[in-house]
Specification:
By secondary structure, the protein is of the alpha/beta class. 32% of the residues lie in helices and 23% in strands. The strands form four sheets. It has a six-stranded mixed sheet, with helices on both faces. A five-stranded antiparallel sheet has the order 4-3-2-1-5, with no helix packed on it. The chain has a two-stranded antiparallel ribbon with strand order 6-15.
Length: 275
């Protein structure tokens, strides 16, 4: 069997290859051998594993997972386009401004997919690929530059010891970066109505919310889908400014509802101007 290398798509043998990962990097140690830092192919999870516990995933299985993700995105785009057609009479007499989105994502491929999605459905979004550890240093600059109404801070995350130390921020791979990024974003803007989502798989939900987020993941410390942060952004962006959006308004659209994402809600950002 050939040696596992960066960029390979693998599964963890000891977990029954339940999640498909991409090898982000290989780390060599003197005493504990070699292990890999992994990130989910279609889920916002980060993990690590000894190299000898990894197995390459067959190409047809990888393609099946990627097709499933693409179909999910296409299905959502069709739903959005159907809603637009139903409101065509209203649109002909008005100018509609949806909320301005700034989406900061730690994953390059997810950033590209997110950008394509926002453009496809016509939302006003700026997407930046910023590694999770750099997000607290960059978010303030970007918030000042783009003046968003909706801020998404996401990437990959995961508990180091799953099912233990829920209140220890250092038991989460990237939650402390998300927490700090939310705090920095709040410091850099006087806009109290900026709606913020932050987090990824298994993130420290309570601490992210205390930092100033409106929505966050993951209350039940479970996996969240690639699309979940985008669904939050979309719902806030296309909801009228006179309506307060709660998690109940779109929980059925999320991978696992309020177990994966929850929050205190936020004001809709769509403005309708009569011609």
């Amino acid at each position: 069997m050939r040696k596992i290398k960066k960029g390979d798509i693998v599964g963890r043998i000891s977990y029954g290859k339940d999640i498909i990962f991409v090898v982000e990097r290989i780390i060599e140690t003197k005493h504990n051998g070699s292990f890999a830092i992994l990130k989910g192919l279609t889920l916002r999870i980060q993990a690590d594993s000894p190299l000898d516990d990894l197995e390459l995933i067959e190409l047809d299985i990888v393609e099946q997972h990627l097709r499933s993700l693409e179909e999910k995105v296409k299905k959502r785009i069709k739903k959005y386009e159907k809603n637009l057609k139903n409101n065509i009479n209203v649109r002909e007499k008005t100018i509609i401004h949806t909320g301005r989105i700034l989406h900061i994502d730690g994953d390059k491929k997810y950033s590209e997919k997110s950008n394509k999605y926002y453009k496809k459905i016509g939302l006003n979004a700026i997407v930046k690929n910023i590694h999770e550890r750099e997000q607290p240093n960059i978010v303030g600059i970007l918030v000042k530059k783009y003046n968003p109404e909706i801020l998404i801070i996401t990437g990959h995350d995961g508990m180091i010891k799953k099912g233990a130390k829920f209140n220890d921020v250092y038991n989460y791979r990237n939650s402390h970066y998300f927490i700090k990024a939310v705090e920095e974003a709040r410091k850099q803007t006087e806009k109290k109505d900026l709606v913020i989502f932050a987090g990824a798989c298994q993130s420290y939900y309570e601490a992210i919310m205390m930092a100033g987020a409106n929505f966050a993941s993951s209350p039940a410390r479970i996996l969240i889908d690639f699309m979940d942060p985008l669904i939050v952004a979309e719902n806030i962006a296309i909801t009228n400014e006179n309506k307060f959006v709660t998690i109940k308004d779109f929980e059925n659209e999320l991978r696992d509802g309020q177990r994966g994402v929850s929050g205190i809600g936020g004001q809709g950002k769509k403005k309708i101007l009569t011609i």
